[in-house]
From TrEMBL:
InterPro entries in UniProt: AAA_dom, DNA_Partitioning_ATPase, P-loop_NTPase
Protein name: Cobyrinic acid a,c-diamide synthase
Domain AAA: start-end pairs: 108-289
SUPFAM superfamilies in the cross-refs: P-loop containing nucleoside triphosphate hydrolases
Database matches in Gene3D superfamilies: P-loop containing nucleotide triphosphate hydrolases (3.40.50.300)
């Protein structure tokens, strides 16, 4: 009897849950503020001259020659003769001049990172792509956080719960669409701490889209609820080279919108059995979704420039090797020939609201950093090379 009473006394009410939400909000804000100290905002990393040379594809001699000419930023030195260090902004100036990436030809490419399975590094991958395309290729990038959980926003040092209201997310685009009104998308992107990367952040209120879009579609069969983002992004495609979209681990109406807006889709997969099994469901849903969609207004069917599978959190464990073999066997040339390894560093930097691209040369051992950073550098370069080839074809 006593036990029953105790259990009853311990019942959890809605008010208790709201209290828990408030406590979590407070704690997240406190942790974030402590992490970012002494700055109120995140700051981009410093870049060593060795890293700058690698990214530009030049050697020490060439760097010395360019420095002598004095046309590019000289970075800073702790004292004369010591290694130079550069800001990300300075690095981008070097990249644009020395690497000389092909200029964008045609509208921005929309790359969506999606998998309905949770925890497969969608957010980490999309953020690294945004940072990497800016730093390594001098691209202008818009990152759209379409996950109401707001993890990507968090990696930019934004607290989606305390600092973002729905008017700053893609919600006004959806509301305007549902009301049949035009909407100025150029008002939404805001700069981040990372040069040349803007963001449209997320907030919990994005969940409302999941009720609003189907309600409208049910009352009006003609409504193209899956095209809202696609149509809205058209206004931004001259401003950016890339629009990278992070999605939630569900087949939500927002994810459907992202997929419909995508030129390229990257599907990260972790080589474990549950992740592999859920991929089967993913392809069914993805295929059904695209086949079931009506054509564009001009009659074209939806096509993608690429749909790639990226193996992440790869380990040397036999089970992971077997699964990776199956993945390659099934998805063939769609599998990106780069494995992102399981890495404590990747996990730990996320814990600090960062990615390992946020780390400077003195933050961590060079070898530990290189192990995880090199394959991601290769991924960023591969995406840009692929898109450049597509831009060239579209000429
Ligand atoms: N290379 C890596 N090695 C080990 N852990 C990693 C790696 N990359 C990311 N992680 C960790 O894996 C977890 C999931 O990453 P992330 O949040 O990017 O996945 P997600 O697919 O966006 O998750 P969700 O489905 O919840 O949105 C995080 O704890 C992150 O720190
Ligand atoms: Mg995520």
């Amino acid at each position: 009897m006593d036990t029953i009473k105790k259990l009853k006394a311990g019942k959890t009410t809605g008010a208790d849950l709201m209290h828990l939400a408030k406590l979590s909000d407070g704690m997240l804000q406190k942790i974030r503020d402590e992490m970012l100290e002494p700055f109120p905002r995140k700051v981009p990393p410093i870049v060593s001259s060795a890293r700058l040379q690698e990214m530009c594809g030049i050697d020490k001699q060439r760097m010395g020659y360019v420095l002598k000419k004095g046309e590019l930023p000289a970075g800073t030195q702790a004292k004369p003769g010591s290694p130079r260090q550069f800001t990300v902004e300075e690095t981008i100036a070097w990249i644009r001049s020395e690497r000389n990436p092909l200029p964008r030809n045609g509208p921005a490419k929309v790359i969506v990172v999606a998998n309905f399975k949770g925890g497969v590094t969608k957010t980490t991958t999309s953020t690294l792509l945004a940072q990497g395309l800016s730093m390594r290729r001098g691209r202008r990038v818009l990152h759209i956080d379409l996950d109401p959980q707001g993890s990507a926003s968090t990696l930019y040092g934004i607290n989606p719960h305390a600092e973002v209201d729905s008017s700053q997310t893609v919600m006004p685009l959806i509301e305007a669409y549902l009301e049949g009104k035009p909407f100025d998308m150029t008002a939404l992107p805001v700069p981040t701490y990372w040069p040349n990367v803007d963001i449209i952040p997320s907030s919990t209120e994005l969940f409302n889209a999941e009720f609003m879009l189907p309600a409208r579609a049910a009352s009006d069969g003609e409504v193209r609820f899956e095209q809202v983002l696609h149509d809205g992004l058209a206004q931004l495609k001259d401003t950016y080279d890339y629009i990278i979209v992070d999605t939630a681990p569900t087949l939500s109406y927002l994810t459907i919108n992202a997929i419909f807006a995508a030129d390229g889709v990257i599907v990260p997969v972790v080589p474990d059995m549950l992740s592999f099994a859920s991929m089967v469901q993913f392809w069914h849903l993805f295929g059904d979704l695209i086949n079931g969609m009506q054509a564009f207004d001009d009659g074209r069917a939806k096509e993608f420039d690429f749909v790639d599978v990226l193996v992440t959190r790869m380990t040397s464990k036999p089970a992971a090797q077997i699964l990776q073999g199956w993945i390659t066997q099934i998805y063939g040339s769609r599998v990106v020939p780069i494995e992102i390894p399981e890495s404590d560093l990747a996990r730990n930097t996320n814990m600090r609201f960062s990615t390992f691209y946020d780390l400077g040369p003195n933050d961590v051992g060079a070898e530990t950093l290189r192990r995880i950073r090199t394959p991601v550098d290769q991924l960023v370069d591969r995406v840009d090379d692929k898109v450049c080839a597509i831009w060239a074809q579209e000429e």
